[in-house]
Design brief:
Length: 304
């Protein structure tokens, strides 16, 4: 009798252990448990920790409540200004209602992925190339709104949407590079022209000051000579202006300006050759033979 009682207790304990093992469940901190009893959704969502269900009757589904990072495959499209681009993005979302995520949509991750691709194509067609390259914050907000509207009915909240990269054709890259280079060259020319204008104004002011004080021009010349001669790597030819000499002459006490006499340079007579001299002597002898001795006429007497 006692043995039968012990066997019954042992059997009951074994059955209880098997039941407990089949009914015991553990829900992690980042999960929520959704229970279906005979296929019907139970209202109570199991919180993290140890929980019990009815074996064979209940089915427990665990839903991850963490933020999911989902890359969106690159989508090729034509922008509003007729430029072909490839754009890829990344979506951050999380489940806020575990029951809706299981009941309202078959696979919420696949649904969010397809919706993200469709929305990204739509954004590409509505935007200009400049907006895709420089105004991404506005496009990210637009994508987030487009995804968040249907996702709320699935028990999913879109946390953030970011456009990762915009791929352009090589011809468009070269065109943009030429445009940027031309713009930089234009700005450089404007800056140089502005600098020339400012320098010309300063030079005009300096010329006005030097015209009032002629000595300032000479001092500036001496400063330039000192700056050039400091290098000691070139030969300097310095023309001395006449104004500087006159200034020094006036500065010297007791000196009077000397008059400069203009002397005509002497006429240089080329030397006579011996043949020329001999011919000349022969000509003179021939003339004397023909005319004879020359007689000088007597002077006329003065009348009384």
């Amino acid at each position: 009798m006692i043995e039968e009682l012990l066997m019954a207790l042992a059997g009951a304990a074994a059955a209880a252990a098997v039941y407990a093992a089949a009914a015991a469940r553990v829900v992690k901190q980042y999960e929520r448990g959704v229970v279906f009893r005979f296929g019907r959704l139970r209202d109570d969502i199991r919180s993290p920790g140890f929980t019990m269900i009815v074996p064979i009757v209940d089915r427990l589904h665990k839903v991850n409540m963490q933020i999911v990072t989902m890359p969106v495959p690159a989508q090729e499209g034509i922008t509003r200004d007729n430029v072909t681009v490839r754009v890829d993005a990344v979506v951050y979302f999380k489940v806020v209602d575990a029951a809706d995520a299981l009941v309202r949509v078959e696979d919420y991750k696949f649904a969010v992925s397809q919706m993200a691709q469709t929305s990204l194509r739509s954004i590409i067609g509505k935007s200009d190339l400049d907006d895709l390259l420089s105004n991404r914050e506005k496009l990210n907000q637009g994508l987030e709104l487009m995804l968040d509207s249907p996702a709320m009915g699935w028990g999913v909240a879109i946390d953030r949407v970011e456009i990762k990269d915009v791929s352009l054709p090589e011809t468009m890259k070269r065109s943009m590079a030429r445009q940027a280079e031309a713009d930089r060259e234009r700005r450089a020319r404007v800056i140089n022209a502005d600098a020339e204008l400012q320098a010309s104004k300063k030079l005009a002011e300096a010329a006005g000051v030097m015209s009032d004080q002629p000595a300032a021009l000479q001092l500036r010349l001496l400063q330039t000579v000192m700056a050039v001669s400091a290098e000691k790597n070139s030969t300097l030819v310095l023309p001395i202006p006449v104004e500087l000499l006159r200034f020094l002459e006036r500065a010297t006490p007791g000196s009077e300006p000397a008059e400069v006499e203009h002397v005509s340079p002497p006429t240089t007579v080329p030397p006579l050759s011996e043949a020329y001299l001999m011919g000349r002597a022969a000509a003179e002898e021939a003339v004397e033979d023909l005319t004879g001795t020359s007689v000088e006429p007597a002077p006329h007497e003065k009348s009384a």
